[in-house]
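yo, LysR family transcriptional regulator is done. seq:
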Amino acid sequence: MDIDLLKTFVEVVRTRHFGKAAENLYITQSAVSFRIRQLEQGLGVNLFIRQRNNIQLTAPGERLLPHAKMIITGMQRAKVDVALADNMHKQISLAGTPNIWDAFLQFGITNIVSAMPGVSLVAEVKAQQESTRLLLERTLDLAILFDPPKVDELVVERICELPIIPVSGYDTATNENFFDNQYVYVDWGTTFSLWHARQFTGKTPPYFRTSTGRIALDLILQCGGSAFIPEVLVESHLEKGELFHVKDVEHTSRDIFVAYHRDNEQKELIETLINLLPKINAYQPVDEH
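structure:
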């Protein structure tokens, strides 16, 4: 059976929409319909009840779903195992959002690699929604995120706290003009956005918006301006006098979370990697007791 047919079936089940499934699979909607018809013809059953804006699984479709997921996961794991280099025994994949890489992961990924000999590490930049989907599909082992997914199948743990401080390229910056002098808004996730909405006192909207802290940092270093940036990213620039900590503007922090599938077969390896993560920088895990 063609594995692409099963992947398409699972994506249609997940989205309950042929068009959305096509977008996520980067194929046309007609290709999705064709694949589903092929699968139905091959199995000799109807898998979906097709109604306008309402796609439901039939009883045979419900029975196929767990088998399809198991086959897809098994095939993906087989590809990984076969592709491992001779000196590598296991592979683990992790992903982080762009801001997680900027403010956290980039500072110690080499330490993780050196601490886990014999393990092939795959590290990627993924958006939060994509990471959650890949975790559920078990094609991603571990995601590092600011906003933890609330999904029963996933284990979510908070590992540390990331201080985010107000900085400016101008030594005259104060609480009165922080948001009005080339202010750069950085998207540090949902919790930050809610906090920021209460703090923002600017008379005009931010003159620049970005989802990446590194872009904001480079911009205010070269062109001036202000932004909320993780302390670990700006420490050296503060010491050199290239940036200034605007201390009368309220600062904040973001919790960093890890997420993985509770049925992942590499749980022991994942836990080893998680224990290494807080050692990436100086910020220790948050004590929840």
